[in-house]
Design goal:
Elements lengths: L16 H11 L7 H12 L4 H11 L3 H10 L11 E6 L2 H5 L2 H12 L12 E6 L11 E3 L2 E3 L7 H5 L4
Parallel strand pairs: 1-2
Antiparallel strand pairs: 1-3, 3-4
The protein binds FE2/S2 (inorganic) cluster.
């Protein structure tokens, strides 16, 4: 049997310690009480939580790494895996589902060639399904980053995606 060498396809992240220090020290005063907000700020910087940043955070705040992982894995909003530049949240809640939310998800999967929870190879998009975005009367709804797109149809999906480089 021939052995093959697996190629690492994950991007190599260069940590910006100045930015981490700014977040941990200046913005949140190394305060353990601000752990969730610090994690959110780190995720906003990298689009996910690179593992070395969690170790650095643990070192600086004195919060055990296991506890930081516990928080990072408890909240669905955090990701320990690299995510795309743009995160697409497709609402699959009841109100959106009856108006075709599932078809929108299928269309997105078809165009992006990924499944729910996956990221496109070019790191442009990550696709997520969510239960409710909070604007049920406007369904079907998708949210891309902070933008809400309401009353959409499968035909509109490609055009919407084209607005996100
Ligand atoms: S069910 Fe889709 S926004 Fe509430």
């Amino acid at each position: 049997m021939r052995e093959t060498t697996a190629l690492c396809t994950k991007p190599v992240i260069e940590l910006d310690f100045m930015e981490l220090d700014r977040i941990i020290d200046d913005e949140y005063s190394r305060d353990k009480e601000n752990l969730i907000m610090i994690l959110q700020a780190i995720q906003n910087t990298y689009n996910y939580l690179p593992k070395p940043t969690l170790a650095y955070l643990s070192e600086k705040t004195g919060v055990p790494l296991s506890q930081i992982y516990g928080v990072a894995t408890f909240y669905k909003t955090f990701s320990l895996e690299p995510r795309g530049k743009n995160i697409i949240y497709v609402c699959l809640g009841t109100a959106c589902h009856v108006r075709g939310g599932g078809k929108i998800m299928d269309r997105l999967k078809e165009i992006l060639r990924i499944d729910t929870g996956e990221t496109t190879e070019d790191m442009r998009f990550t696709l997520e399904g969510v239960r409710c975005i909070g604007c049920c009367s406007l369904g079907p709804v998708i949210k891309i980053n902070e933008d809400i797109h309401s009353r959409i149809s499968g035909d509109m999906v490609e055009n919407i995606l084209s607005k996100y480089a």
